[in-house]
Design goal:
This protein is an alpha+beta fold and about 350 residues long. The chain contains 11 helices and 7 strands. It has helices spanning about 30-45, 65-80, 80-95, 110-125, 165-180, 225-230, 265-275, 285-290, 305-320, 330-340, 345-355; strands spanning about 45-50, 50-60, 185-195, 200-210, 245, 295-300, 300-305. The chain has a 3-stranded antiparallel β-sheet, with no helix packed on it. It has a two-stranded antiparallel ribbon with strand order 1-5. Strand 3 (about 185-195) and strand 4 form a beta hairpin. It starts with about 30 loop residues before the first helix and ends in a 6-residue tail after the last helix. About 20% of the residues are buried.
Length: about 350
């Protein structure tokens, strides 16, 4: 902090303009001010710990896989495309290793939960078991026709199967995530040391895992490697309030705001799920269509739009704005649900859809 205000970081800037957000309470440190503060701070010889704050944080495991989360994790951890993930999952399903792989429900059957609990007791011990059955909140608009994607009821460990290659890797991912979903929370202790001199506040934050819980079995992947590092312990030396500390180095580091990152396949599937675009069964085919028709190309793991894609998008937005709106699918789902529940009549709906001012005709 500088003069009691937090120093501006990436989240304080508007991603579309690169300027500090008008709502931000942060202080933007210019280069000249940063160098002046650096010189002042370097002259101070008596550094002491001004404050120590400790808090316990509980982390809950992620729910079992649904189609979209399986595609995201498989892309991040195994490097499989959405199409390849579904092809491998189809094979696992056909050979009786997993339940149906096109689902948007995180529900597990009572029999499955009992079997998972038995595996956790046997492998990790009772203390790693969640109290009672853990039921995750239903996904908005989920059709709940199937269970979550999980191993079939014998719950064979990956090394006890004849599987190999991508099938073995994907089965292991599904097996670990399902087991972890019914494990106890991870308890972590976060410690923050505060130092303050010449109007500048500095903090050092450490994290110690008190009880690993579900982390013993599974950690969720991230597109951002910085987030993946959050799961690791960062141990600080033992210090007391008022204790002296030696300054090793102080640096004035420039920070540049970057444009929003390009989509990866995992990121695009996550966005489609959040925006309600398509259904679990269509995510893989949507991504494949973008690549097959040359609307986007793959550059390492990112999806880069082509000129063809940009021109087609502009044309569609000009001619068919209603149908290429990101909310189109989710709005239609809601409309059809209202008709199914008898809250709306289907003939006026279809008339408006076809003959209305923005209708298909």
């Amino acid at each position: 902090t500088v003069h009691g205000k937090p120093v501006a970081t990436g989240k304080d800037f508007d991603e579309s303009t690169g300027m500090l957000k008008s709502s931000s309470k942060a202080h933007l440190v210019e280069e000249a001010e940063a160098k002046t503060l650096q010189e002042q701070v370097q002259k101070i010889t008596d550094w002491r710990v001004r404050s120590i704050a400790t808090k316990t944080v509980k982390k809950q495991p992620a729910p079992p896989f649904i189609t979209s989360t399986l595609q995201q994790e498989s892309n991040r951890k195994l490097g499989l495309s959405s199409k390849d993930t579904m092809r491998v999952a189809q094979s696992l399903y056909e050979h009786g290793y997993i339940t149906y792989m096109r689902t948007d429900s995180t529900t597990l059957s009572h029999e499955a939960v009992e079997r998972i609990h038995a595996v956790i007791r046997e492998r990790y011990g009772n203390e790693f078991l969640a109290h009672g059955e853990r039921h995750d909140k239903a996904v908005k608009g989920a059709q709940e026709a199937h269970e979550a994607i999980r191993p079939s009821l014998d719950f064979r460990a990956p090394h006890d199967t004849p599987l190999s290659g991508a099938e073995r890797d994907l089965y292991e991912l599904i097996w670990m995530r399902t087991i972890a979903s019914q494990m106890s929370a991870s308890n972590q202790e976060q410690t923050t040391y505060g130092f303050e001199e010449v109007g500048c506040g500095f903090t050092a934050t450490g994290m110690r895992i008190v009880f690993p819980g579900f982390l013993r079995a599974y950690t969720e992947g991230h597109d951002d490697p910085e987030l993946a590092l959050d799961e690791r312990e960062r141990l600080l030396p033992e210090l007391r309030e008022g204790e002296a500390a030696a300054l090793r180095e102080v640096a004035a580091v420039a920070h540049e705001t970057k444009p929003p990152a390009r989509f990866t396949e995992a990121g695009l599937v996550q966005y489609m799920e959040k925006a309600g675009i398509g259904r679990p069964s269509t995510y893989a085919s949507i991504v494949s269509t973008l690549l097959d028709r040359g609307y986007a190309r793959k550059q390492q793991s990112t999806l880069v739009p082509t000129f063809t894609g940009m021109i087609v998008t502009q044309y569609m937005e000009k001619r068919f704005p209603v149908f290429v709106d990101a909310q189109f699918t989710s709005r239609m789902e809601e409309d059809l649900d209202r008709i199914a529940e008898g809250k709306e009549s289907w003939i006026p709906y279809l008339k408006a859809f076809y003959f209305g001012s923005n209708g298909l005709k």
